Amino acid sequence: MATTDAGDDVLEQWNRMVDQMNDTVARSVEQNIKAQASFVESWAEAMEGSMPEEQALSEGFEAYSNAYEIWMESADELFERARQASEGDEVPIEAFRDIWLRTANEAFKEVMNTSAFAATTGDVVESMMELQRESQTVSQDALAQMGIATQSELEEVATRLVEIERRQHSIEQKLDTIIQQRE
User: Fold this and answer.
1) Mean pLDDT across the chain, nearest whole number?
2) Contact 104, 68 (CB under 8 A)
3) Using CB atoms within 10 A of its CB, is residue 114 exposed (0-12), middle (13-18) or buried (19+)?
4) Are the C-beta atoms of 138 and 36 separated by less than 8 Å?
């Protein structure tokens, strides 16, 4: 009978432990779902406000149109140089590279000097930083729920460890001084 009672106790402890684990996992999943929902809401809000104004949009289209014209003119120039080379004229390969580099610089300048580009770039950077903050929060929460040390906890431990090493070094210096005085 004693064996059966011991077996029942082990089974009961096992069941309690499994129930606790199930509760912990369920809470963790629930919190992760809430955090992910918050993350998606923040992302949607950030993207919603990122549409440029009509004037900036118009300016952007004009700049892209100008850049396209620059590329087309350079294509004509490259074609002419290729024709000259095919007819036997000496056209250095660097000429093709120079045309491409000059064109790329001019076209990018057309686009990048617009307020639309600046505004869009700023909005994208701001949105990405917000998404990164949200992602870090979700990650930290998930790690905490799983009982894994978070980055902030590791940083705290590292700070304490450095302080302990500093104190140990100070104590070692004092001990060395005491030993030298006794000799």
Assistant:
1) 79
2) no
3) buried
4) yes
